[in-house]
């Protein structure tokens, strides 16, 4: 895989990470449970750090890194706001949409890992994929907990 293709894959992951950061921040603002709110703020920070790490890698490969979230991510956040307004900003509904966003992130990372990446880039993407998977599982557990109330 040439550098241009690797940069394209990484820029897709940067966009995904920036979407996650923004999505977690916005969802955290609407959550009522302090523990859920602090967890989502932590996940937003993890996404921000992942994006920065990927941006540095793109720069080191001679590319121009993605710097803003995607349009589809903005649409998803708008949908979350709409559903939250209808449901009274219920923690379960908000966390359900966060989990849906993490499903998209997992898919993006799996797509990236299906590519033939240089070993150092693959290691970075695999490590970040594990973090995304943990975030997904934690959001799902919070959602299930909120559902129990």
From TrEMBL:
Residues 6-114 form the DUF2383 domain. InterPro entries: CHP02284, DUF2383, Ferritin-like, Ferritin-like_SF, UCP029477. Gene3D superfamilies: 1.20.1260.10. It holds the Pfam family DUF2383. NCBIfam families: PA2169 family four-helix-bundle protein. This is Uncharacterized protein (TIGR02284 family). It comes from Azomonas macrocytogenes.
